[in-house]
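Summary for the steering committee. The consortium agreed at its last meeting that each partner would contribute one worked example illustrating the joint modelling workflow. Our contribution is presented below. We chose a case with several input lines so that the handling of multiple components could be demonstrated. No manual editing was applied between input and output; the record is shown as generated.
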Amino acid sequence: DTEVTQTPKHLVMGMTNKKSLKCEQHMGHRAMYWYKQKAKKPPELMFVYSYEKLSINESVPSRFSPECPNSSLLNLHLHALQPEDSALYLCASSQRDGYGYTFGSGTRLTVV
Amino acid sequence: QKEVEQNSGPLSVPEGAIASLNCTYSDRGSQSFFWYRQYSGKSPELIMSIYSNGDKEDGRFTAQLNKASQYVSLLIRDSQPSDSATYLCAVNPSNYGGSQGNLIFGKGTKLSVKP
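What follows is the complete predicted structure of the assembly.
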């Protein structure tokens, strides 16, 4: 299995909703990442789980919170989002630091 | 601030030509370099990785790295319309700032291959 699986593929949510994005990989990779990508922009790093240690981009607002139930799963919990949070949310994994990423297909999020 | 710079394009080449995509980076201690292809509305796909100076070839793709000049490029030979996409350069910077292997992406170059 050489894939990173993200669900759902599309999500529309209101500003008062709570939702979660899910990411799963079975490649034995030890690092997993959440990126946010706006149209015509490069991916921006949000969170890293590497060897069970969480690293946070300090510019990410607290309405986004990651959770890593085990080494194969990475969730992103969403709460009280704003319309400007609408974007493509990408999960990625890598064998270890410094190696190339395998990206999931992404979740297209729209906040209304 | 560690940066990765790319010409945003669009770069337009005729079918069968060589497309040349360029990338510069600011962190001299960077160790790993990657090229991703991203079709519109899709996620990035890793197409090349390079770790040492020189050329690395994989099919129609050649990555070139010059660490002294802080420059990495991607050549696509015999370009096809299916190569039309945005190409993202990504760099793994040195760990001095606690980057922990997080890739820094350039803004991407949009390539258009005309039939």
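Chain A has a mean pLDDT of 92. Chain A touches chain B at residues 31, 33, 41-43, 45, 48, 50, 55, 88, 90, 94, 96-106 (CB under 8 Å).
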